[in-house]
Amino acid sequence: MRIDLKDEHRIALMTNMCDNLSVFRAKLNISQDDLADKLGITRQTISAFESGQRGLTWSIFLALILIFFRNQKTKNMLVSLEIYTQELDAFLTIPSNKLDDKK
Q: Does any domain span residue 65?
């Protein structure tokens, strides 16, 4: 069964991430430069995300999820701020029967 996220849901998740990006960085004590290096983008792009001048792409959003979900300090925040939702978790989960098909 294929799980899909509606565009409205994706936009809401990405907007919520942008609104809280500086908080996540502060929690991990990393600079805009540090985060930009991890994402392969510029510090100015991070600044534009944080100031609301630019929206996230889905790829950058998913990269941020990966970074912040791997750190306990920010993992709980992702859930409590409803950025990492049950719908997103279902979307990102590959059913075991799909993995078995590749063998």
A: yes
